[in-house]
Amino acid sequence: MKVHLKIKRFNPEVDKKPRWGEYDVEVEPTDRVLDALNEVKWNEDGTLAYRRSCAHGVCGSDAMRINGRNMLACKILMQDITTDGGTVTVEPILGLPVQKDLIVDMEPFFAHYRSVMPYLVNNDPLPANGRERLQSQADRERFDDTTKCILCAACTTSCPSFWARGEYVGPAAIVQAHRFIFDSRDQAAQERLEVLSEEDGVWRCRTVFNCTEACPRGIQVTKAIGEVKEVLRTGVIE
Amino acid sequence: MPQYHQFDALVVGAGGAGLMAALYASKGCNTAVISKLYPTRSHTGTAQGGISAALGNLEEDKWEWHAYDTIKGGDFLNDQDAVDIMCREAIGAVIDLEHMGLPFDRLPDGKISQRRFGGHTNNETKKAVMRACHAADRTGHMILQTLYQNCIKNDVKFFDEFQVVDLMIEDGKCNGVVAAHLATGEIHVFHSKATLIASGGFGKMWKVTSNAHSLTGDLPAAALRRGLPLEDMEFFQFHPTGVYKLGILLSEAARGEGAVFINDKGERFMERYMPTLKDLAPRDICSRYIYQEVREGRGIGGKDYVYLDFRPSEINKYFEADGNPKRIDAHYLETKLPDIIEFSRVYQGIDPIKEPVPIQPTAHYAMGGIPTDNDTRVLADETGKVVEGLYAAGEVACVSVHGANRLGTNSLVDLVVFGKIGGQKMAEYAKTASFRNVQKDVAAKEGLAELDHIRNNNGTERPGAIRKEMQVLMDDKVGVYRTGSGLEEAIDKIHELQARFKQIKIDDKGLKWNTDLMETWELGALLDLAEVTAFSALARTESRGGHFREDYPARDDANFLKHSMAWKNGAVKIKYKPVRITRIQPQERKY
Question: Has residue B425 got a pLDDT over 90?
Fold first, then answer.
């Protein structure tokens, strides 16, 4: 099918402000948006810049704003967002500085990620038999959903609170905190909760649910944020 | 003027092997990681089914059985002392990952859950054994996340989105790397005592591949250009279950949970070929028989694919036929294989719970690569001479633990075991070694010149066209089935593509985020590796593991129980070195 791509372009070495690049491409209905971008880059305009790697929704490189919603370009098929002769709009994710075309500076996002201590803390001696720590199936299941996060930033950059204030840690960092707070092996919940109870912590979440809709991994992000808020309210991790 | 950095130890690549090496090197010396991707984008994250270790959490198992399976799976080309290290250390490595926080699935008693995988057996009963430790079907994702988390915890220094374009090698010693900072286009010289290459695979030579766009063999190509050999390049694994046409991997865990291959007649054909392990025979064997079915007209609708069937009713039917008391339902599969079920739904519009899934073999894993010894030190030749200061681990390296065909789950075992050894060995080396002299402008000269050439050359050839032709050629001539004449044709065509590559023209002349430039540089790397792969395949006139020659269909231990080593100084030159055989003598490979 024939599709008109409208891509927001910005070359820091030439442009003073972003402009629209318009391209007509021939694609299969089952092609990914990423395939259409590759079609432009490889056959028409090599200067188009975007991140991509695994091309099947696992590495998290290619979160973009496609027809006004955050998605992974490699996990959405053309037939699911347009029809023959239709137009697809592609823009960089919002709230992070654009470096070139669809590439944004991810460092502020990863700084928020690092701020919640995204690693297991357990200071007990390791099992004397030299084997794994035991964990019940129910305890493991408790935080399963938030282990799926691929740090693509689709959630954080779809959040109006983050757009309004970049200091807000954002949904992705809270998801990471959740993954450890609810892990029965972890012992640093209190330190993480201190970070998340500060001015730019979980209370900036206004329960808009954009994050949950944007998550390409299907994580119930808003629910996870709600559970962290609940722990802060009650002091109990359940 | 290039920027300059100095570290005791450098790690190139931030997948499982690189992060493991960085964690352990940084305990003993000043370490930095250079990666062309953000670390969490690395391809380790796409590994699905599991990491094997003879924990014996469900049934009796021994690391010696794991080693035997690995060697038999590798068609006896593995260096057996290296395999012993890998399988013995796998147990501690998996426990280490759990202690670092990896959320493995659990058994009712709280221990790590394990499942079946192709080629992993109880050596006494010959039946499949539950050895693969897993976290749903995102085990690689959890390994990558856990290792990155621990690197943050331990303040490991990262240079993200820096792409290495040259190795600094002088007088047979490595002094670090030259890299381009993607965001700015600036050239950086990273001066080190020890450098470990952990840049992963290079499957983008092929069109139908499970590999990421970024897997372009930058470092092995750089090593070749610096006069170092690559080992066993003719051995590339074609995984039997790629999504038809797209090549996206559907984990062998599906078959571990009971899925079967079905041909156009509705027949479970693997039963005919491998009566004991059936659909859980190793990957090289399954891929070959899928294409045999296709060639004999039993592909689905006469086309070039077969079905992978994991409808619960079918799985239960085959469990019953096999005398397996286990029964599963849709909910069970959704819990155990959520990601691959979603891949089928998203990319094929097929619900695997209700319909069989069209699959075809997909270029998946490099058994060959940069030759190393068991301490991960890079080897300069077939006699075992070491390149001082240079190390390699993970898929990019050839230790060789996988021989002619890798068993499922062993990639993850390889990268955690040898990544750790590499990190430890670098830290030991850095304690006593001193920095060798480097003149940064001289060191950066060649890498910079190549980039400038690509950026400014005013030729007629577009990189996209050359890449496409190379990938189609490799699928056709250097795939699952190979012939001498087909390989000769491939070599001629690759030479033609290399000549055309010299006449390249790119659109982007800028410095910042010039992905046009870097993709084109990567294409040059892939062309060199394709050439070496085809030459190594032509020279091996036998069939073994992942390398199948229709004109030489039998394994030939008398002449080819040996590793190839390929150099490229203008023309490609092949030498050989013996396989290290310790306990297990080569035998006929039946399952």
Answer: yes
